[in-house]
């Protein structure tokens, strides 16, 4: 990991962070409800949602063009939460091993997903009120994320150890573009397979 120079977060970025946290609260409730049936009660316990992440930091829309972008950046901020033992736990990405996977929830549940292109960069972020913290910024290859254009959420798994079965998860909203051609090709293939006529 490399250390970046301290950077001053402007008012727009602070507003983006506040908006991101509010959106995460809403997305979190919806994602939890949607994920429980799909997970069967097992994987959810292995990767509880405890990470504070920001997809495409500095980009309020979290825009990702799968046809144009070769990589996507994800910032991991420190987070504090109650562990399974009831004790307060702090996850500091600057102190943890770089064992992450990023992509669609479905892709990560299958044990797949994009791995970081490198060890990432540690950057100190200073907020408007003077507080500061270090965040880890990672880059992931877009082709391995499993995004098909229907996603509104990007997920990040951090694996506690090499076996990759336990750790923490985080998510952020995304806007994925550049997959329309692929989707229309698949639709055409299904039409031909079912013998439907193309009007």
Automatic annotation (TrEMBL):
InterPro entries xref list:
TAT_signal
Q: Which named protein is this? A: Tat (Twin-arginine translocation) pathway signal sequence
Which species is the source of this protein? Halopelagius fulvigenes
The organism's taxonomy opens as: Archaea, Methanobacteriati, Methanobacteriota, Stenosarchaea group, Halobacteria
